Amino acid sequence: MNSAPLSPNAHVPPSSVRVLLVEDQVDAREVYELLLRGRGAHVVAVGSVREARAQLDRALFDVLVSDIGLPEESGYDLINYVRASAAALPAIAITAFGGVEERVRAIEHGFDVFLAKPFRADDLWAAVDSVVRRRPLSSGDERPGDATLQS
To answer: Which domains does the chain carry?
Structure first.
């Protein structure tokens, strides 16, 4: 998996954020993709853990947004793959199961942020903004400026 950390707390414009979106429900995936692209993010959207692994092995991303309840393999399988590679890729879990136990389990598995469905568009972008500002960027070049992501 590709990951080249930069300085922590880097601030980037939304047009520089590369998001890997993993959601098996086509309608939801399209809505999330539109929301993120509408903020200027570059989005690669896939419907399975297998497809996500293939993307992670060939491209760099600034954040992973993944449903937990996926067919064949779960979002937990995906985050285990990401964390086993020693990647510092920020990860946001999204799920229809929003209880405390599920939230704790997601964080224990290595997700940085947990969003329970349904959530507002602003909540998704705030989560992306939050993890991108807290973590190093994935590309090898520093990005100019210290502006935070626009809401």
So the answer is: 15-134 (3.40.50.2300)
